[in-house]
Amino acid sequence: MATLRPLVKPKIIRERTKKFVLHQSDTYVKMNLNWQKSRGIYSRAGRRLRDQILMPSVDYGGNKKPTPSPEDTPNVSSKNSKANVERAAQLANRVTNLNARLCSEENE
C-alpha cells in the first residue's frame, strides 16, 4: 500500500547553522577547532556562564517531528498484538519487535 506524501516538502528550519568550536581554540595554533565538550570544573564554558561559547544541546534541533515506531511488547496478548501489527501495516508504520508472541501452529 502506497503512502500519501505531500506535494511540497516542508523546509526544516534550523535554529543554528554555524559550527560549534572548541573553547579557547582560537588562542592556540596546536588546538583544532573541532568541538569537544569542556569537562573541567574550572572552565567558564563548561560551567555555562554568561557570554561564553555556546555548547550543543537538544534545543538547537529543527522543527522536524519524530515519527514514533510502535513496539510490540510482551505484556500484550497475542490476539491484540496481531491486530496492532496489521493496523501498523495499514498505516505504513514500521513495528519494532515484530514477531513477539506470534507463534505458528507447528511449534505448539
Structural summary, described in words:
This protein folds into two domains: 18-64, no CATH class; 78-107, no CATH class. It contains one helix and no strands. It has one helix spanning 78-90. The longest helix has 13 residues, at 78-90. The two termini are 33 Å apart. Residues 70-83 have a biased composition (Polar residues). Residues 56-86 are annotated as: Disordered. Pfam families: Ribosomal_L32e.
Secondary structure elements and pairings:
Blueprint: H1 78-90
Region (Disordered): 56-86
Protein name: 60S ribosomal protein L32
GO biological process, one term: translation
Provide the number of structural domains. 2
Q: Residue share in helices?
A: 10-25%
Q: Order of SSEs, N→C?
A: H
- pLDDT averaged over residues: 82
The strand count comes to 0
Which class do the helix and strand fractions yield?
little secondary structure
Strand content: under 5%
Structure in a nutshell:
This is 60S ribosomal protein L32. The protein is low in regular secondary structure.
Write out key terms for the chains shown.
108 residues, 2 domains, elongated, 1 helix, little secondary structure
